[in-house]
Design goal:
Layout (H helix, E strand, L loop, with lengths): L1 E2 L8 E2 L22 E8 L9 E11 L8 H6 L5 E6 L2 E11 L2 E6 L7 E6 L9 E6 L2 E12 L2
Antiparallel strand pairs: 1-2, 3-4, 3-10, 4-5, 5-6, 6-7, 7-8, 8-9, 9-10
Protein backbone atom coordinates (compact mmCIF):
# COMPACT_ATOMS: atom_id res chain seq x y z
CA UNK A 1 0.00 0.00 0.00
CA UNK A 2 1.23 3.47 -0.85
CA UNK A 3 1.04 6.36 1.53
CA UNK A 4 -1.15 9.31 0.60
CA UNK A 5 0.46 12.03 -1.48
CA UNK A 6 2.42 14.40 0.73
CA UNK A 7 3.82 11.59 2.86
CA UNK A 8 1.41 11.99 5.81
CA UNK A 9 0.66 9.00 7.99
CA UNK A 10 -2.91 10.10 8.73
CA UNK A 11 -4.49 8.31 5.76
CA UNK A 12 -3.61 5.26 3.69
CA UNK A 13 -3.97 5.78 -0.04
CA UNK A 14 -5.63 2.81 -1.77
CA UNK A 15 -5.71 4.23 -5.28
CA UNK A 16 -9.36 5.30 -5.12
CA UNK A 17 -11.51 7.57 -2.99
CA UNK A 18 -14.85 7.08 -1.33
CA UNK A 19 -17.30 9.92 -0.80
CA UNK A 20 -19.33 9.38 2.36
CA UNK A 21 -22.15 11.74 3.22
CA UNK A 22 -24.00 11.60 6.50
CA UNK A 23 -27.48 13.05 6.45
CA UNK A 24 -29.92 13.74 9.26
CA UNK A 25 -32.80 13.61 6.80
CA UNK A 26 -35.45 10.90 6.45
CA UNK A 27 -34.58 7.33 5.65
CA UNK A 28 -34.99 6.91 1.86
CA UNK A 29 -37.94 4.52 2.27
CA UNK A 30 -39.87 7.22 4.12
CA UNK A 31 -41.85 9.79 2.17
CA UNK A 32 -41.22 13.36 3.27
CA UNK A 33 -39.58 14.67 6.42
CA UNK A 34 -40.62 13.25 9.77
CA UNK A 35 -40.21 14.92 13.09
CA UNK A 36 -40.09 11.99 15.52
CA UNK A 37 -39.86 12.92 19.18
CA UNK A 38 -39.26 11.25 22.50
CA UNK A 39 -41.73 12.77 24.97
CA UNK A 40 -41.98 12.30 28.72
CA UNK A 41 -45.31 13.21 30.31
CA UNK A 42 -45.45 13.48 34.11
CA UNK A 43 -48.61 13.60 36.20
CA UNK A 44 -49.60 17.19 36.93
CA UNK A 45 -51.35 18.57 39.99
CA UNK A 46 -54.34 16.58 41.20
CA UNK A 47 -56.23 16.32 44.47
CA UNK A 48 -54.17 13.25 45.44
CA UNK A 49 -50.89 14.79 44.18
CA UNK A 50 -50.97 18.58 44.80
CA UNK A 51 -47.38 18.90 43.52
CA UNK A 52 -47.81 16.41 40.68
CA UNK A 53 -45.78 13.20 40.49
CA UNK A 54 -42.70 12.57 38.36
CA UNK A 55 -42.94 8.84 39.15
CA UNK A 56 -46.31 8.61 37.39
CA UNK A 57 -45.39 9.12 33.77
CA UNK A 58 -45.74 8.20 30.12
CA UNK A 59 -42.88 7.87 27.65
CA UNK A 60 -43.99 8.38 24.07
CA UNK A 61 -42.23 8.05 20.74
CA UNK A 62 -44.32 9.93 18.18
CA UNK A 63 -43.96 12.14 15.10
CA UNK A 64 -45.11 15.74 15.48
CA UNK A 65 -46.45 17.97 12.70
CA UNK A 66 -45.29 21.57 12.34
CA UNK A 67 -48.12 22.77 14.62
CA UNK A 68 -47.01 20.41 17.42
CA UNK A 69 -49.88 17.94 17.07
CA UNK A 70 -49.26 14.24 16.49
CA UNK A 71 -48.69 13.60 12.78
CA UNK A 72 -51.39 11.09 11.79
CA UNK A 73 -50.00 10.53 8.28
CA UNK A 74 -46.55 9.64 9.64
CA UNK A 75 -48.09 7.15 12.06
CA UNK A 76 -50.08 5.60 9.20
CA UNK A 77 -46.80 5.04 7.32
CA UNK A 78 -44.88 3.65 10.33
CA UNK A 79 -47.42 2.58 12.98
CA UNK A 80 -44.98 0.23 14.74
CA UNK A 81 -42.71 3.20 15.50
CA UNK A 82 -45.36 5.11 17.51
CA UNK A 83 -44.83 3.56 20.94
CA UNK A 84 -45.95 4.43 24.45
CA UNK A 85 -44.94 3.21 27.89
CA UNK A 86 -46.93 3.93 31.07
CA UNK A 87 -45.02 3.89 34.37
CA UNK A 88 -46.83 3.90 37.70
CA UNK A 89 -44.97 2.93 40.92
CA UNK A 90 -47.79 0.77 42.30
CA UNK A 91 -48.44 -1.08 39.01
CA UNK A 92 -46.42 -2.98 36.40
CA UNK A 93 -45.25 -0.86 33.46
CA UNK A 94 -47.47 -1.08 30.38
CA UNK A 95 -46.03 -0.82 26.88
CA UNK A 96 -47.85 -0.59 23.60
CA UNK A 97 -48.67 1.61 20.68
CA UNK A 98 -50.62 4.71 19.75
CA UNK A 99 -53.59 4.65 17.35
CA UNK A 100 -56.17 7.14 16.15
CA UNK A 101 -59.59 6.52 17.73
CA UNK A 102 -62.12 9.02 16.42
CA UNK A 103 -60.75 12.49 17.16
CA UNK A 104 -58.54 11.24 20.02
CA UNK A 105 -55.31 9.29 20.25
CA UNK A 106 -55.51 6.01 22.16
CA UNK A 107 -52.72 4.16 23.92
CA UNK A 108 -53.19 0.41 23.58
CA UNK A 109 -51.05 -1.86 25.74
CA UNK A 110 -49.99 -5.31 24.60
CA UNK A 111 -49.71 -6.68 21.11
CA UNK A 112 -51.69 -5.11 18.32
CA UNK A 113 -54.97 -6.76 17.56
CA UNK A 114 -57.42 -8.49 19.87
CA UNK A 115 -54.98 -8.78 22.80
CA UNK A 116 -54.57 -4.99 23.11
CA UNK A 117 -56.07 -3.19 26.09
CA UNK A 118 -57.06 0.50 26.08
CA UNK A 119 -54.95 2.28 28.71
CA UNK A 120 -55.64 5.95 28.03
CA UNK A 121 -56.82 8.48 25.49
CA UNK A 122 -55.52 11.93 24.61
CA UNK A 123 -57.09 14.84 22.76
CA UNK A 124 -55.29 16.07 19.62
CA UNK A 125 -53.62 19.02 21.35
CA UNK A 126 -50.28 20.59 20.39
CA UNK A 127 -47.37 19.10 22.34
CA UNK A 128 -44.58 21.41 23.48
CA UNK A 129 -42.07 21.53 26.33
CA UNK A 130 -43.89 22.45 29.58
CA UNK A 131 -47.39 22.19 28.07
CA UNK A 132 -50.24 20.61 30.04
CA UNK A 133 -52.13 17.81 28.32
CA UNK A 134 -55.19 15.87 29.43
CA UNK A 135 -55.17 12.08 29.33
CA UNK A 136 -58.22 10.01 30.16
CA UNK A 137 -57.76 6.79 32.10
CA UNK A 138 -60.90 4.77 32.91
CA UNK A 139 -63.01 7.85 32.17
CA UNK A 140 -61.04 10.08 34.58
CA UNK A 141 -59.35 13.16 33.11
CA UNK A 142 -55.80 13.53 34.43
CA UNK A 143 -53.42 16.45 33.77
CA UNK A 144 -49.94 15.63 32.48
CA UNK A 145 -47.06 18.06 31.96
CA UNK A 146 -44.63 17.67 29.05
CA UNK A 147 -41.47 17.26 31.16
CA UNK A 148 -39.14 16.42 28.26
CA UNK A 149 -39.36 16.66 24.49
CA UNK A 150 -36.33 15.49 22.47
CA UNK A 151 -35.67 15.04 18.75
CA UNK A 152 -35.20 11.48 17.49
CA UNK A 153 -34.77 12.22 13.80
Amino acid sequence: MDRAPGGTNAHIYLGFSVDVRISRGPVPSQKGPMNWKSIRLELGRTRDFPNGSASRAYLMRVPLADDGTIDAEAIERLPEQATVRRMWPSQPDQSGHLIRRGERWAFLAGRSGKQSVLVSEMDPEPISQGALLTLRENGEALPFRVARLCDLS
